[in-house]
């Protein structure tokens, strides 16, 4: 409600990164509107940003979420896109090996152009596509651990873990802005593990 404290300082530029087709725009649509619109989005959709306010520990945190307009198709995401980003959701598609293999290249670019303290979350999207899966959940986990970033599998189609992904990022960002000295530090990895929804009934082992 509007009675909650609201701090303009808690407006955070959050960007979506990853190969074309991994589901960045779909993920944002699912988070923003709670629905899945099948089919690819044209390059004209997703220009600019979407503002979303999430409530974290009785505080409103505004995420200004930027989606590319298809530039990633040509690997021409400009460096300006990374600039000022405080958080970054990096996606691959669990049904696409190349999108997973390219995560390292994306991370190299991120380390080069994004701010040092950017909050990074690795997401294996399309977890609903059990039969088409080519990347095991443990592979995603292993890569994430190697880079020290939190990880989860999401489905922009069913909505599994979509809110959680953005909420975990918002919690981490909020802590950075207004942590009290003797407040226990928010542990994003532990939080995610405790909140994660299982992506499918049929398992992924
Ligand atoms: P982007 O290029 O990364 O923005 O990807 P899009 O959001 O345009 O999605 C590419 C294609 O994958 C579209 O056909 C989407 O409908 C589909 N898609 C995206 N996310 C999911 C998902 O979680 N599950 C399934 N089954 N399809 C998805
Ligand atoms: Mg898109």
Task: Return the average pLDDT rounded to an integer.
Answer: 86
Shape, per Cα inertia axes: globular
Fraction in beta strands: 15-25%
Major β-sheet annotation = 6 strands, mixed
Strand sequence of the main sheet, in spatial order?
Answer: 2-3-1-4-5-6
Radius of gyration: 16 Å
Count the beta strands.
Answer: 6
H/E series, N to C?
EHEEHEHHEHEHH
End-to-end Cα distance: 42 Å
Question: Helical proportion?
Answer: 25-40%
- Unique ligands: guanosine-5'-diphosphate, magnesium ion
Which structural class do you get from the secondary structure elements?
Answer: alpha/beta
Q: State the helix count.
A: 7
Low-confidence stretches: 201-205
Question: In a nutshell, what does this entry contain?
Answer:
This protein has 205 residues and is α/β, with parallel strands linked by helices.
Structure description:
α5 (137-147) links the parallel β5 (119-125) and β6. It is globular, with a radius of gyration of 16 Å. Strands 2-3-1-4-5-6 form a 6-stranded mixed β-sheet, with helices on both faces. The protein has helices spanning 24-33, 79-82, 97-101, 103-113, 137-147, 162-178, 188-195, and strands at 6-17, 49-56, 59-66, 87-93, 119-125, 151-153. It has 205 residues and is of the alpha/beta class. α6 (162-178) runs antiparallel to α7. It is built from 7 helices and 6 strands, in the order βαββαβααβαβαα. The structure holds guanosine-5'-diphosphate and magnesium ion. Magnesium ion binds at residues 24-25, 41, 46, 67.
